[in-house]
Amino acid sequence: MSPSLTRRAYRVKSVDRVFQLVGVAYIAAWLIPIQACVIANLRDWSRGAIDPSGCFLWISIHHVAQLALTLLFMKVFAGKTLSEWGFNLREWRLSLRIFGWFCLVYLVPIFFYSAFPNLRSGQPPQFGYPLIPRNVSGVLGFEFLGAGTCEEPLFRGLVMGLLARSWPGKLSMGRFSFPVGGLWATLIFMIAHLSISLAPFSITTDFWQQVGALGLGLYYAAVFYRTGSLLGPVLSHGYSDGIIEVLRYVTAALMR
Q1: Could you give the angle at which helices 32-40 and 57-76 cross, rounded to 10 degrees?
Q2: 236 φψ region: left (φ > 0), alpha (ψ -120 to 50), beta (else)
Q3: Least crowded by CB within 10 Å, which of 87, 133, 195, 233?
Q4: In this predicted model, what pLDDT tens digit does every residue of 233-245 receive, in sequence order?
């Protein structure tokens, strides 16, 4: 192949990569979450007896719908079994060992983020709902069991699985290697944590939330890449979200 044809083929491949990246970002950070919102909004869940305070049922329905739509997209992009998308127990011992260390290490910074500011200022954390057993158990149930279970198949399974086809490379540093697709998946994960309004157009975010999305996104991607399983990312994601609420509840109880 002549040098000019080689350069042209490279440009075409690069354009294809950009289009795929934009398409995957649109699906993961916009289309699937928005459609899940439409499904969750089909009913006013706060009017029922399960969650009259409106603090956990809507978001739970939204995430279940998000998981269902993710599985649908996995089915549409045929050629892989669910096991190949990450629904397996490969390297489960390693996943549990990594998760155990993550629980210990993560507890230190998240304490200073979630509990220490309130303890230092003397102002207890504020909640938009009464702290009664139904609300507390519903919120913790969603955070520990629902958040990671419904988000990791989308951002690690589907996104990384799709991007790996066009971005198969990896970055190596000694014995450690990280997939290029995992970097893009982390960027999309961060975009999904932006608050975007179209009328009027605005983008708002919390700096520390983006820092957390960056660090945790890289960690989830690394674990998924190392094990080929969603087990580690799902467990870690659930813990990382749930422990924040646990610390807030404990802080509120101590400061009564």
Answers
A1: 130
A2: alpha
A3: 133
A4: 999 999 999 999 9
